[in-house]
């Protein structure tokens, strides 16, 4: 089975899950759905609080890289009693199979959900019948 896999940061692999949780809490709170149909893979990330222009999406080799810089809180003088969400920056890296058509990857952002479509390459027909004229 071919699938897309989230790549943990190098420090998480080197120092274990405790270090990863402490240093990248925002990473662990991004809820992600990955599904497929006959034509593409789809990634859906719940990331409210951003604008379309805030995202940077790139492809390097077989990696899809999604990131956004941290945004300043609009209310700076408030004294929070509890604060569980913010528009902090994030960085996610996914590996994908070679059958993804990297030239036609597309993305959209609606109602706090970033959706990335990774279409499959069109398969070249390697066997066919030739009619004699």
Global geometry: elongated
Order of helices and strands: EHHHEEEEEEE
Q: Determine the strand fraction and express it as a percent band.
A: 25-35%
The CATH topology annotation reads as Immunoglobulin-like
Helix count? Answer: 3
Uncertain ranges: 11-26
So what's the CATH class?
Answer: Mainly Beta
Roughly how many Å is the radius of gyration? 19 Å
Largest sheet: 4 strands, antiparallel
Q: How much helical structure, as a percent, in the residues? A: 10-25%
What is the number of domains?
A: 1
Mean pLDDT over all positions? 77
Write up this protein.
The chain has 133 residues and is mainly beta. The protein has one domain (5-119): Immunoglobulin-like. It has helices spanning 10-15, 17-23, 25-28; strands at residues 5-6, 31-36, 40-46, 55-60, 63-68, 90-95, 106-110, 113-119. The strands form two sheets. It has a four-stranded antiparallel beta sheet, with no helix packed on it. Strands 2-3-8-7 form a four-stranded antiparallel beta sheet, with no helix packed on it. It is elongated and about 85 Å long. The N and C termini lie far apart (43 Å).
């Amino acid at each position: 089975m071919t699938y897309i896999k989230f790549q943990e940061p190098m420090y998480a692999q080197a120092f274990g899950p405790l270090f990863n949780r402490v240093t990248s809490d925002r990473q662990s709170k991004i809820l992600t759905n990955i599904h497929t149909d006959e034509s593409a893979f789809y990634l859906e990330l719940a990331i409210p609080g951003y604008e379309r222009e805030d995202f940077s999406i790139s492809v390097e080799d077989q990696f899809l890289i999604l990131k956004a810089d941290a945004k300043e809180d609009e209310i700076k003088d408030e004294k929070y009693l509890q604060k569980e969400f913010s528009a902090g920056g994030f960085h996610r890296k996914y590996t994908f199979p070679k059958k993804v058509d990297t030239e036609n990857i597309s993305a959209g952002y609606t109602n706090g959900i970033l959706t990335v479509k990774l279409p499959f390459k069109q398969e070249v027909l390697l066997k066919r019948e030739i009619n004699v004229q």
